[in-house]
Structures are given as structure tokens and as C-alpha cells.
Amino acid sequence: MRRLSGRVRLPRFRRRRAGGRQRLTRRGRRMTLRDLFSEALAGVAARPSRLALTTLGTVLGIAALVATIGLGQTAAGQISDRFDAVAATRVTVEPGETDGPDGEVALTQLPWDAPQRLERLAGVASAGTFATVDVGGDPVRGVPYGTQEQTVPVAAASPGLFDALGARLSGGRVFDEGHDERGDAVVVLGRYAADRLGINRVDSQPSIFIGDRAFTVIGILDAVDYRSELQDSVIMPMTTARELYGLEAPEVLEVRTELGAAQLIGRQAPIAVDPNNPDLLDVTAPPPPGSLRDNVSADVNGLFLALGGLALLVGGLGIANVTLLSVLERVSEIGLRRAVGAGRSHVAGQFLVESGIVGFLGGLIGSTVGVLATVGVSVVRDWTPLLDIRLALVAPLLGGAIGLVAGAYPAWRASAVEPITALRSG
Amino acid sequence: MTPPVVEMSGIGRVYPGPPRVEAVRDVDLTIAPGEYLSIIGPSGSGKSTLLHLLGLLDRPSHGIYLLDGVDVGTLPERRRTRVRGERIGFVFQAFHLLPHRSVLENVELAMVYLRVPRKERTARATATLERVGLGHRLDFDPITLSGGERQRVAIARALVAQPSLLLADEPTGNLDSGNAASVLDLFDELHADGLTLAVITHDDGVSARAQRRVRIVDGVMSDVAAAGVVA
């Protein structure tokens, strides 16, 4: 073993040497990660204009990717806005017809208690039935004996229909289960029907007449989400229509579901309504929102993602190219580092980290550009920009990863540089 | 008893070629602690090969090389790299300073791979730069310095890790006579402080400053005084 004593030849450094000197046999990595990064950063920062050009490819690639995904998400958001929460919760059930085995046509009818059957299902917010009523040509009038005869359509509804259609009233109330069970002679007027009958308030308990029968107006509709024909109609309870005008069956069952339950209810409703012949019912339910969004954004994204990927590939090749150039240019620096104690792995590590930093910077700038592009396009198109925040965070890392991959070959070349050749005066 | 800094016996280096070149033949060289040696020879004489062998940049084909009494010929590459960083300070003809890095950073570089703590690095680099008379240039970019100043930075970098041996390869080759003289004066001072130096040159004027001179011609080393040849 060597002896430390007597090795001191520079008296002014004596004190430090005794403590700071390392032994020949010392093992382990000698360069801290921080040193590796600061050396790599200094190497990158030494040529700012080249850095800018090198990052360009990655900037474009990452920007294209982020903008594509961002605009895809934004566009999908706008599209699903159109099919909003109301549309996504509407299920209708109508009796259908199928050909029987002997060529006869099998018919089915909605049962009177269809709303009650549906309301037992989890996920149903409200359900109600609707039917048009044939009043046998009886005129509908606002006063008992007037000249103003109106042809106003008459409809029947179960109490739950109003809620199922999202009806709002401008005055009064809608009929309830009690009115329906008793077959009370009450009606709710659609907004336009009320106008035509000259009735604009219900607090005076006005009546209308269908033929000779008087009906008390208990409410006037202001708006409905669907079945706007109700606005033109006089609406009476189902039982009333059945008893007075011989209504045979409801025509359609309207169901409003909880958000996200529409597809499920669409499958369950026919079985609940008619367990014996569920196939005879026509059910209309909204398509799953996911498939809607996927279809649209898949079209938009495919091409742009391909372009972004291409730009990234070019960006990575650019980094590889410039880093390789830089290795050749800095051969003497590599030689010097080897001379002052850097191993091959240190040299390779430095160039790898340098290209990783370049890629990361490119990713950072590209991610910013992509987000700005998404916001910019959204502003111009009057959209609400939607962007997964994770994308903006992952994009720079992707850039860094591309830089690392691109730097692998140049780093290997750098580590293979022989210090002898590198240091031969140059 | 302190071992010699360098103890080479029967060192040879053959480049297998083709053509097969025997660049250095059967060299026996001992450099005692505190010695100032110059190795002189014309270009192509094998002195660069000898420099690389001395500096652990190359491995001898045969022979034994003890550095500070340790046989470095048998060490694996990683250990040789480490020993090189710790025990040998290089001064090159072309300086090899990193552009766009301050003078101080250039000197600190010699300690980066030796795991010297950052604070200590700065303190030692500053002290060493003051020692070579560049205390007022710490934050300068090397490309703004004169050749003589650049070589002083390079010498400070070689000294800062407190090597056993300072190896200088044509240290004045790129300098005018004034700057060359001041660099050689610095070598004299360092020698007086106890540093072991080996200067490789083709210039008799440079080699004449050394305490002991050896000549290498066609790969064969001979003592200048013993041969009695002074050009």
C-alpha cells in the first residue's frame, strides 16, 4: 500500500491534501448527479442559437401532439354539449308490431300502469304516458256558448309525463295521481292552446268546454323540453280520457333517467313494461356518450396524431444529428474530461443528459405552444377549450424521453473517443 | 522511504500495425519526488507515446510502470481513469480550455470527477488561480485571455487536484517568447515549491530549464548528460 506521508510536495496545499485526498482503492461513483446535470446544462447553454434550432423539431412535434389532442378533446366537448344532459336522459317506449309466425301481425299495447312499472327501476327519475284523444269532433271553446269555435287538439297524459318532459308552468299546477284516479274533469293547457282559448290566468278557476262538457283549467304550460305539440293541446288525465272518450291505451311512454342510466333503462324498459313480449316494443334511447365522442374525435385525431408523431420523429433525428455533430466538434473537450478523471460512462452520461435536456426544453416549449394553439382556436371558433392537464405535464417528459433516445448513439460515440487522439494538439 | 513518483522498467509500446511500429523500446525511467525532468526528442521520436504512457492514456505493451509505488499497468480501466484524474496533471500545447465557461469553472472541472465538494472546489480553484497569478481573471471567458494567460489557467487546472506529477506536452508550443518565458518561470517556481514535473518538448531552450534531461530518439531513451550531447 502506498503511504500518504511524504507525498506532500506543495506546502501551501498541505492541510487540504491531508483531508481531501482520495485513496487509490476508493470505489464507487465519483460524480454526483448534480454535477452531471450542471456540466450538461453548461454544455447545452454554451451554444444558445444551436440549442434553439435543435429544439425546433421537438417543439413542433410536441406542439402538434398537444394541440391535436387538445383540439380533439375540445371538439368532443362541444359535440357532447349539443347532446346535452337532457338528451342523454330521454328514453321513449312505443308499442311496435312484429310479424307473427302465421303471417298475422302481432300488436301490443302499453299498459295503463306503465309509468308505475318504470318508476320501480333504479335510474328512472320520472316516467309518464301520452296519448292523443279523439273527442269525436266536439269543438273546444273557452266559454260555454260562443261563436269562436277552435279546433284545438286534445291529449291525455299521466301525471308523471310533465316531469318526464321537463315541463315548466307559467301558472297553476299539473294534475296529480288523485285527479287521474278519480277521472276528474280538469285540464292543463298548452301555452298556445291557452292563447287561442283566451285564457291567460288560472287563479280565477276558468273553465273550457269540449262539446258540452266543462273542464276546469288548473295549469298553463310555459315550456317543455320535448313533445312541443303539447303546447298546442288541451291535456287531460289518462283516466278522464278513458272514461269520457274511450281511450284504449297510451301511445307512448316517456321516461327521464338519471344521468348515464339511459342506455341501461333502454334495455330494461321493455321487459318492465311487457314482460311477455318485450320484443314488441320500440325503444328509443340515446347512444352511449362515449361512443359518440370516440367516433368524432377518432376522425379528427388520427391524421394529426400521425403528423405529430412524424414531427417528433424528425425532431428526435434532429437532436441525434446535432448531438453527434457536437460530439465530433467537442472531441478535445471529451479528451480533456477523460484526462481529468472522467470515465467513459461520465462522458456518455453527459451527452445523454445534454440531449435529454434539449428534448425536455423542446417538449416544454412545444407543450406551451400546443396549449396556446388549443386556446387560440377555441377562442376563434367560440368553443370552450378542454385539455387534460396531465397532457400538458407529460408532454415535456415525452420530449425528454425522445431526447434521451436520440442521444443514445451520439453518447456512445462520445464514450468511444480515445483521449489520445482527442488531445493531440487541436 | 518515499517511492519514486514514476518508476518505469523495460517499458515498450508496439503498435501492431501494419506496419508494425515499435514506438517506445525498453525504457527505464525513474522520476524522484520533486524532480524537474525534461524529455526531449524530435517529432516522431516516440515522445508523444511516452507521454501517453506516463499519463495513463495508453497501456504499455510490456514492462512495468509503478506510479507512486503502485503498479498501474495491471489496474482495470476504470481505476486507471481515476488514478489519472487524481495523480496526474496535464498541460497541453493547445491548452484545451472549455470556451464559454469561466476561468474558475475551467479549473474546477479538474475536481468535478473527483467528488470534491462544491464549496471546496471553488476555494481551491480560486487559491490555485491566485497562485499562478490569475486571481483577477476568475470570471473571464478563456477566449478573451492571452495565450500566456490561457496556459496559466491550464496549469492551474492541472495543479488544483494536487497531482503527484505534472505532465506538460510542448507547453510553450503555441506561445510567443515572452509568454513562454513566463510559463517556464512559473514551472521553476512550482519546482521550487516541491512539485514533480515532466516536460516533453522538442525545444532545447525549454528543456534546458529542467533539472534533468533525457532524450528519446527512435523510441530509445538516453540520458542527455551521460550521452554528452547538447545540441
How does the SSE layout of this entry go?
The complex is a heterodimer of chains A (426) and B (231).
Chain A lengths: L13 H7 L12 H13 L2 H35 L7 E6 L1 E3 L5 E3 L6 H6 L4 E10 L6 E2 L12 E4 L2 H5 L3 E5 L4 H6 L3 E4 L1 H7 L9 E4 L2 E11 L10 E4 H8 L6 E6 L4 H12 L7 E4 L4 H41 L1 H9 L4 H38 L7 H27 L3 H5 L3
Parallel strand pairs in A: 6-11, 8-10
Antiparallel strand pairs in A: 1-12, 1-13, 2-3, 4-6, 4-12, 5-9, 7-10, 8-11, 9-10
Chain B lengths: L5 E10 L5 E11 L4 E5 L6 H8 L7 E6 L2 E2 L5 H11 E4 L11 H10 L5 H14 L15 H14 L4 E5 L7 H17 L3 E5 L2 H4 L4 E6 L2 E4 H4 L4
Parallel strand pairs in B: 3-8, 3-9, 6-7, 7-8
Antiparallel strand pairs in B: 1-2, 1-4, 4-5, 9-10
Structural features, described:
The complex is a heterodimer of chains A (426) and B (231). With 426 residues, chain A is α+β, with helices and mostly antiparallel strands. Chain A folds into 2 domains: 30-81 and 291-423, no CATH class; 88-285, no CATH class. Chain A has 14 helices and 13 strands. Chain A has helices at residues 14-20, 33-45, 48-82, 114-119, 160-164, 177-182, 191-197, 238-245, 262-273, 289-329, 331-339, 344-381, 389-415, 419-423; strands at residues 90-95, 97-99, 105-107, 124-133, 140-141, 154-157, 168-172, 186-189, 207-210, 213-223, 234-237, 252-257, 281-284. In chain A, strands 1, 4, 5, 6, 7, 8, 9, 10, 11, 12 and 13 form an 11-stranded mixed beta sheet that branches. Chain A has a two-stranded antiparallel sheet with strand order 2-3. The radius of gyration of chain A is 39 Å and the shape is rod-shaped. The two termini of chain A are 39 Å apart. Residues 1-29 of chain A have low confidence and may be disordered. With 231 residues, chain B is an alpha/beta fold. Chain B has a single domain (6-225), classed as P-loop containing nucleotide triphosphate hydrolases (Rossmann fold). Chain B has a 6-stranded mixed beta sheet, sandwiched between helices. Chain B has a 4-stranded antiparallel beta sheet with strand order 2-1-4-5, with helices on one face. In chain B, strand 7, helix 6 and strand 8 (197-201) form a beta-alpha-beta unit. The interface between A and B is large, with 45 and 56 residues.
